[in-house]
Design a protein that fits this description.
Layout lengths: L27 H8 L8 H38 L2 H4 L6
Length: 93
């Protein structure tokens, strides 16, 4: 037998369903993901609708977060000017 004609004996499991070949030691999340079906690809119309829905939820949250951050910054700056550091014995910045 030449080097090119080597026969390799591999011990592997054969499965007709690629999703059924799950590691028996997998956690519950991996087992759940193995059992659920994947969503079909979105059409451009469905994708546009989904993006619009996410935007309607995320943009107000981001706006409120940015507004509260700005209000907090102004309030701390005003308090520092009016003596917060000396009243509370803060040292450093």
């Amino acid at each position: 037998m030449s080097l090119n004609e080597k026969h390799v004996n591999m011990d592997i499991e054969q499965s007709t369903n690629p999703r059924s070949a799950l590691d028996p030691h997998a956690d519950s999340a991996a087992k759940f993901l193995n059992e659920v079906q994947e969503y079909p690809p979105l059409t451009p119309e469905q994708e546009k609708k989904l993006i619009r829905k996410v935007d309607w939820i995320m943009i107000p949250i981001l706006f409120i977060t940015a507004t509260l951050g700005a209000v907090d910054k102004v309030a701390l700056g005003t308090a520092a000017i009016n003596g917060l550091r000396t009243d509370t014995n803060l040292v450093g910045q």
